[in-house]
Amino acid sequence: MRDDTFLENRRLIFEYISNNPGTHQRKISRDLNMHYSTLRYHLDYLEEKGIIISQTENNLKIYFASGKLSAEEKKLTTLLQQKRFRDIILVVIDDPGSTSSQISDKLSVKPTTISKYMNLLEDRGVLYHVKTGREKRYFINDEKSVIRLLMAYKKSFWDSFVDNVLVLYMERE
């Protein structure tokens, strides 16, 4: 009986990580309704066996299924898992060439907050800007990769904004 429970827990954890790459332990624990210590035990086992891999980002240990994503895709999925980054990326996909003030207005977020996130997205190579006069207009560096990841993992976002932007993008293509 105990072996069946262990195997089932490991299967659930692996399946969750495969469908939600770049998520951290607390989120996995909450979503699977699994005690944190039990989860850590199974995560350590799966990682030791090479079935999953982890990396630390912003003091969080995040997990990926082994061999499923490239290093660039891992960086991008980690950002897409975070609502604020995802929303900014979606606004820029929906309206390429948006300024930070337009993005701030669309998301109802303070311009200083948007600026902080935009700088991080530029530093990580997700966005780039073109200056027109005194304004910076923002674009996605590799839009097709972003769209592919959004489509592949859209279930993990539980976000109608993702669905709406993907529909508009497909109609535009």
Verbal overview:
With 173 residues, this protein is α+β, with helices and mostly antiparallel strands. It folds into 2 domains: 2-67, Winged helix-like DNA-binding domain superfamily/Winged helix DNA-binding domain (Arc Repressor Mutant, subunit A, Orthogonal Bundle), CATH 1.10.10; 75-172, Arc Repressor Mutant, subunit A (Orthogonal Bundle). The protein is built from 10 helices and 5 strands. The protein has helices at residues 2-19, 25-32, 36-48, 71-80, 83-94, 100-107, 111-123, 143-152, 154-157, 160-172; strands at residues 23-24, 52-57, 60-65, 127-132, 135-140.
Q: End-to-end distance, in Å?
A: 52 Å
Average residue-wise pLDDT: 85
Counting structural domains, the number is 2
From the coordinates shown, what is the CATH architecture of the largest domain? Orthogonal Bundle
- Say how many strands there are: 5
Give a quick account of the main beta sheet: strands, pairing sense, barrel closure: 3 strands, antiparallel
CATH topology of the largest domain: Arc Repressor Mutant, subunit A
Topology:
Layout: H1 2-19, E1 23-24, H2 25-32, H3 36-48, E2 52-57, E3 60-65, H4 71-80, H5 83-94, H6 100-107, H7 111-123, E4 127-132, E5 135-140, H8 143-152, H9 154-157, H10 160-172
Antiparallel strand pairs: 1-3, 2-3, 4-5
